[in-house]
From TrEMBL:
CDD domains: RRF. This is Ribosome-recycling factor. Pfam families: RRF. Belongs to the RRF family. It comes from Pontivivens insulae. Its main location: cytoplasm. PANTHER family: MITOCHONDRIAL RIBOSOME RECYCLING FACTOR PSEUDO 1, RIBOSOME RECYCLING FACTOR. Residues 23-185 form the Ribosome recycling factor domain. Responsible for the release of ribosomes from messenger RNA at the termination of protein biosynthesis. May increase the efficiency of translation by recycling ribosomes from one round of translation to another. InterPro entries: Ribosome_recyc_fac, Ribosome_recyc_fac_dom, RRF_sf. GO terms for cellular component: cytosol. It comes from the Bacteria. The lineage of its organism: Bacteria, Pseudomonadati, Pseudomonadota, Alphaproteobacteria, Rhodobacterales. Keywords: Cytoplasm, Protein biosynthesis.
Length: 187
């Protein structure tokens, strides 16, 4: 078998692992009733003509278990950071104190917990879509290899291997979602 007919399933698996690690980062940003600096990782601020993660325009600290502070470096960016946090869907209302924003973390009520589990479900679905896109890329590689003369048996072996990798990653995503939803619903 020549190199052009080989399908790199390890590279496909690494790309799927990337989707899984991205999902875990998204889950870390969901709050579960305690303050965490990573909960603001998903917030992007319009700064200097482009969208930037909040940690590139401010310092995020957790001085107390139910408080996050955001110290904005540029005084002119305070309003944009506040707006980004309000519009992020995290359910937090920042309190301005000069160039520092204080974010009191309210106790989660039942309705907000349900909303957060839905958000977690959306993050998981995005990760599933990413994994399926990688699967599709792998299947496209098989089609190209078929046109280049790959044997049907080899096509079947690679297709089965890609399906197996996909199922394993989807299963990991589902179990991570289940764990996160249980964590959110804990009172």
């Amino acid at each position: 078998m020549s190199d052009e007919l080989d399908i790199d399933t390890d590279a496909l698996a690494k790309r799927m692992d990337g989707a899984l690690s991205s999902l875990k980062g998204d889950f870390a940003s969901l709050r579960t009733g305690r303050a965490s600096g990573s909960m603001l990782d998903v917030v992007e601020v319009e700064a200097y003509g482009s969208m930037m993660p909040i940690n590139q325009v401010a310092t995020v600290n957790v001085p107390e278990p139910r408080m996050v502070t955001v110290s904005v470096w540029d005084k002119g960016m305070v309003g944009a950071v506040e707006k980004a946090i309000r519009n992020s869907g995290l359910g937090i209302n920042p309190v301005m104190d000069g160039t520092t924003l204080r974010l009191p973390i309210p106790e989660l009520n039942e309705e907000r917990r349900r909303d957060l589990t839905k958000v977690a479900g959306q993050y998981a679905e995005n990760a599933r879509v990413a994994v399926r896109n990688v699967r599709r890329d792998g299947m496209d590689q098989i089609k190209k290899a078929k046109a280049a003369g790959m044997a049907e048996d080899d096509q079947k072996v690679y297709a089965d291997e890609i399906e197996e990798i996909t199922k394993a990653h989807i299963s990991k995503i589902d179990s991570a979602l289940e764990t996160k939803q249980e964590e959110i619903m804990q009172v």
